[in-house]
Amino acid sequence: MNNKWLILSLIILMYLPVSIDATVLHVAVPTLSIALNATASELLWIIDIYSLVMAGLLLPMGALGDKFGYKILAIIGLIIFGIASLCAALSTNTLMLIFARALLALGASMILPATLSGIRNTFLDEKNRSLALGIWSTIGVGGAAIGPLVGGYLLSHFHWGSVFWINIPIVIITIIAILIIVPKQPQNHQQPWQISKALIFIVAILMLVYAIKSALNINNSLIVILSIGLGGVLLLVFFVKKERKSLSPMIDFSLLKQRVLVIGIIMALTAMISIVGFELLMAQELQFVHGLTPLQAGLFMLPAMLASGVGGPLAGWLVSRLGLRIVATFGMGLSAFSFFGLAMCDFINYPLMAWAMMILLGLSVGVALLASTSAIMTSAPADKSASAGAIEGMAYELGAGFGIVLFGIMLTLIFSHNITVPVGITGDLVLQAQNSINEAFFVASQLEQSELSDQLIASAKQAFVSAHVIVLLMSGLLLSGLAVVIWLFLPAKAVAIHH
């Protein structure tokens, strides 16, 4: 095999677990809630900490790769990823697992730019580079698509920690292969590294998310919640001001003056929020309400993820013929339509209708992501294409993180409002049962009277189905409004402003 294609094989091998880990825990929510006695808020942290931390670290880690070469960056990232996988697999409580997932994100934020840099430096011919990038992109989409399926299979046959154990042999094999095959990389020690800015950004985002999630628990102090939320806002304002004055900003905020680029970012955020949030909702309903195993739930959701991989190429073909505005509006409108259909759908009794709606959702997300890329990259000046691409990457990761946050919060609020706790359950157990469906199931398992337990489970299932309907209808309405905004403000063809 030609050496460059061998290097591409290594790139694929190291990128696959990173992309799978973004979605592998989506079907594990019921299992983790029982195994670790996790609250609804803790479950959200376990899942979304990965994307939120990655969003802030991708840019400085890319600069670190330029400084020391992608070979060193990849090896360090793989070592951290392997250690984090071991910590996650051995976690005995939710806090340990949350920190392990954050450490996984640190390793992944090094691996991801190392893979792109590896392709750029290995494939000097433009045609071969395009082919390699296409394979890389397919691995990213495919890994995220099969994540719930991989998680479902492993959870159906092994301990939940197995979803992390599988990373370790891949990491070991890849590190050894990189040391043997990949040549020494040129280094640029003059390249600035701005990790402090990234840490400020991450802390600000996590403070805001923490304040939002904490507000769901009525037992938490309102003063503390507001203080943390305000601290997050002030830190974010400080970050923006610091970046705008910087001669070498991590994020080029001047690009946000471009209306088309801003709409592209909104589309990227919305598309990721939609598909990731929907996965979270589906994974819980299929297992808690309908009694499916993790593997059955992963298989049930597979059409949506596979369709999202098809939507991108389809959108590329459509944009070249119909123009960006029509395709972007159509993609967002199709997402809204699919959410309306899924809100009214009985998944178990009418699976074909559910799959049809999920395929439409997957296609529309793929279309929206391609349209967002087109809007961002064609409206950015040529000399700022790298900055625009970095902003797009951050939008994807933030969208994935906020999809878990927003859908999780909406489900929790509506579930808490709709559940009727049976008479006979008293005290703190009532409040716990009202928090989320997984906590209601946990309370039911602690009750001595089987009749009370059955009543609580039935009430929790009904409340979650009601929450599912309302959340998807609200999402459909918001996406419909966004489709109108895109049509009104996005030109048919985006043109870059050249400086």
From TrEMBL:
It is a multi-pass membrane protein. SUPFAM superfamilies: MFS general substrate transporter. Keywords: Cell membrane, Membrane, Transmembrane, Transmembrane helix, Transport. It is found in: Cell membrane. The chain crosses the membrane at residues 45-65, 72-92, 98-119, 131-156, 162-182, 194-212, 218-240, 260-283, 295-319, 326-349, 355-377, 398-419, 469-490. InterPro entries: MFS, MFS_dom, MFS_trans_sf. Its main location: membrane. The keyword Disulfide bond does not apply. Residues 7-493 form the Major facilitator superfamily (MFS) profile domain. Signal peptide: none annotated. It comes from the Bacteria. This is MFS transporter. It comes from Orbus sasakiae.
